[in-house]
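I would like you to help me understand the sequence and C-alpha cells below and explain how sequence relates to structure.
___
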Amino acid sequence: MLFSIMRNEWRTLLAERSLPAIGLLLALTIGYGIYNGQAWVSFMRESLAATQAEYAERTQKLQSDFLAYEAGSKKPVGFSDPRGASAVGGTSAVPYVALTPGPLAALSVGQSDLYPYYFKLSLRSKYLTLSNDEIENPVNLLSGRFDLAFVIVYLYPLLILALTYNLLSSEHEQGTLAMTLANPVTLKTLMAAKVLTRGLALTVLSLAILVVAIFGLTLTGNGVAWRLALWAVVMLVYGAFWFVLAVGINALGRNSSANALLLAGCWLCFALLVPALLNLASTAMYPVPSRVEMIQAMRNAGKEAQQRGSQTLARYFEDHPELAPAGGGRPDFASLSTAAQQEVDRQIQPILYRYEQQVSAQQILVDRFCYLSPAVLTQQALNDLAGTGIGAYRHFNQQADRFLKTWQDYFFPLIFARKLFVSAELASLPRYVEVPEPGSDIVRRVLLSLAGILVPTLVLTVWAIRRLNRYRLAA
C-alpha cells in the first residue's frame, strides 16, 4: 500500500508541475552558487600565485645582488648593508605564509572573505601586517557570498516547505482525506508515503544537479571522497529536519495558510533570528578592543622606544644577555631598531592578549548556543568540510605564529652579532611548510554538528507521530 500511495503522489507532483519548477530553481541557484564560489577561489589562488611570483622574483634578485657583492662589481649604497641580517630577515628575503584553498573551498566560501588567508611575515609582529588585507565591499562581508552552502542552508529549506506545508491540510480542505483513510491505510502510512515521495524526489534531484554542477570543478587533494560523502550526509540530515518539522506542523490540524505561516516563522527563527541574536549577544557580552586603540598604542610605544634609544637596547640586553655583543661597543641602527620593535611588541601585548581572549570568548559562546539553530550547525559543518571554517583559520594562525617565532629566533642573534650573509647561505634560511589540518579534527567537528541536527530531528519525529495519533478528521 505504501508504494501504491507513493506512485500516486509522484503522478500528482508531476501533474501539478511543481517538481519541474523546483528542479529549475535548484539548477539555477546551485549552478550560480558554485560559479560564484569558484570565482572567489580563483581570486584567492591568483593572489597566492602572485605572492609566490613576487617572492621568487625578489629572492632571485637578492641572489644576483649577493653574487655581485661577492665579485666586487657592486657595493652597498647607504647606511644599511643589504647583506645584513636585519635587511635579509626584515625585508628582502621574508617569505609568505598562506592557507591554500581546500578541494571543496568553492562550495562554501565560509570565513575566507573575512580572515586573511596569507601573511607576509618579517621580524615584526604578525598583527602589524593585518593592514595588508585586500579591500572588500563591506556589504558583501556583512551578508556573505552566494555559494552552494548558502543555497543549502537558506534556500533548500524553503523548497522543502513549499512541497510539504499542505501535506494533510490540502486533502482535508478538499474533503478527500476521509475518503482516502476509508481504505485499508492508516494516517501514518499516508503521511510516510507523502514525505518519502517528496523527500526522495527532492534529494535525488538536488544530488543529481549537484553532481552535474561540480563535475567541471577540479576536485583534487587529500580527503575529497570523505568530504563529499559527509557533505551529502549533512545535506540529508538537514533536509530531514525540515521534512519532520513540516509533518509536525501538518499534524496540528490547521489549514494550509496557517501551516505556511508557522513554517515560514520557523525558518525565520532558525535561519535568521537565532544566528543574529547569537552574533549580537557575543559582541555585546565580549566586545573586542578597538583597532584604533591598538594602532594608537603601537604609535605611542614606537615613539617612546625611539626616544629612549640606547636605554631600550640596554634593557633588551638585560632581558636577553645571550644576544649582547662581546666587548660592548656602540650599537648600530639595526640593533637599535630591533630592540625598539621588540619593546613595541611587549607594550602592545596586553591589548593583543585581551583581543584574543575576547574573540575566543565570543566563539565559545557561539559554540555553546549554536545547537539552538540547525542552520548555524549546518553552516559550520559545511565550512569545516570546505576548509573555510573557524577551525581551519585557527590552525593556520597557529602555524603562522610558530613560523614567525622560528624566523625571529633565527635572525635576532644574527642582527646583534652584525652578521653579513653570503649568497650560499640564502638557501638555508627557514622555510614555511604548510601542514593541513588533521582530518580527524574536521570529522569530529562535523559529527558534533550532525548530532546537534539529528537529536532535535528525532525529538520532532516522536512529537509528530504523537500528533498524528491524535489527528482529528472532523472539521
In short: Residues 18-71 form the longest helix (54 residues).
